[in-house]
Amino acid sequence: MIKSLLIANRGEIACRIIRTARDMGIRTVAVYSDADAKALHVREADEAVHIGPSAATESYLVADKILAAAKETGAEAIHPGYGFLSENADFAQDVIDAGLIWVGPKPDSIRAMGLKDAAKTLMDNAGVPTTPGYIGDNQDADYLAEQAGKIGYPVLIKAVAGGGGKGMRKVDAAADFADALVSCQREAAASFGNDIVLIEKWIESPRHIEVQVFGDSHGNVVHLFERDCSLQRRHQKVIEEAPAPGIDEATREAVCAAAVRAAQAVDYEGAGTIEFIADGSEGLRADRIWFMEMNTRLQVEHPVTEEITGVDLVEWQLLVASGAPIPVQQDELSIDGWAIEARLYAEDPVNGFLPSTGPLDRLFLDADRIETGVEEGDEVSPHYDPMIAKLIVHDETREEAIAVLAECCEATEVWPVKTNAGFLAQLLHQPEFQSGDMTTGFIGGLDEAITAKPELDGGTKAAVAQSLAANYADLASQQSGLLNFRLNSPHKDGFTVRVDGGPTTIPMDGSEMAGLMPLASNEFILFDRGFAYSISRRATGAGEGAASDGAILSPMPGKIIAVNVAAGDAVTKGQKLLTLEAMKMEHSLVAPFDGTVAELNAELDGQVSEGTLLVEIGLAEIDAGEDSE
To answer: What is the pTM of this model?
Structure first.
């Protein structure tokens, strides 16, 4: 049995593996970059080794540094987690050649499933149903266009080395094919160093169904049933569940059996996931579910499978890597209840899902199971994936699990980093999701209301006002930074304050008091339905200047690629002010409320640092005694 384990990963992934390893009596070794010197996974491991600068390309993705850390600490085995080097066959081989135990599939299995075209051919030969389409060496543009016509539009052009939604283009008509092909190949070459593509029939009502499989070195392969990961945004999973809603036993048996054949075809060992695309236009049917790809690693969403089966997949990984057989036979596995997972990200859905980084001054999470790599007081770094946590619930029925998870998302409190908690809660309340009638395009088809921050309702406003009136003196005496805080005098309708920078009146009617988080900058934070609302004194007197809430700061280092306003311009809430290019994405920064551009510090093509004041929006003059809503 493995006695010491180096985890070649970070964050919640590393923390998840450390937890099981500790329970098994295995000594754990963490690795960390400059940015992660004080990270939770470093604090939880028995030992930690620094491996380089913050950029993953100079630390977590450098195989030689990982191997050197294992040698330095005497680790017997390396677990790659998921992401980074987890599906790198060359790294797996390097680990084995170094005389260490690789906690994952054999390098040849990784290679066999690494390219979509080769994997699809392999699956065809193994009797696993694959999506109708073209795979081949002939990459001539005219020939590919001819094949697309034979398949029938719409079609999907897909990079054979792709992943994460990159190198993919839907084409609706023959006239659009040539441009889409060039664009797809260019992106594939830039992202993966490989511009070869395949063409598949576009599925009009796609659902993403995947099957957890597990193999060992004794020739055993089992499945642990299916997951539904259809709720996606830009090909990135948002909410996952197990089992899949609407699947009957015959279809489940057919799909899971196909997944086992797929794993057997590559002599698979360890944890893996066979991903299928299903045409859900007539419900889930075995003859309308096709192989898409295999992920030769543990998946982010593996906890929902663990919850319904009672299995610890990381424990299985460590046992199998040590040479043991899978602990149970297929007929000993069964489904118990329903599990759903939501990915809590540091991002701002209100502003185009702009990534949010910085300190976690407030972090409160509530769920049956929480997978996270941060604690209150830690920071969300701009260098890595912005996931804060996974919230997982397990209940007897799907309806009960949805209701509990929605409550968990609504109870989330994070500040000052912005999150998608409120967005997740609103998704869970959507009738189509609750009925199980959703596709991978469901989120993209929703209107902007799904990402909008709700206005505070009357009852909440009343509770806030009552809390301010009853608790202000006590709060001020405890927080020296609040000594200069002054609410506008209440009038017959209540207090006039700023909510998220916009002036409003909140009434006083004796409602139950609301909980507020005091800050040292004359400000309170109200957490409501997964959203954070800034409550502060509204500037009403002459000469008080623009509200500090109107300061538009650069959320991360980047380049200004568009400036849409000038100093002195009148702007409306939500109006685009400028566009920042950062982290290989374009981020639109918008006005937080109606007002005037009081200051403009952004220049086209200018490079800016995180926290730089780019635009200052001043409030439009409003009578303090009026409710502005």
So the answer is: 0.79
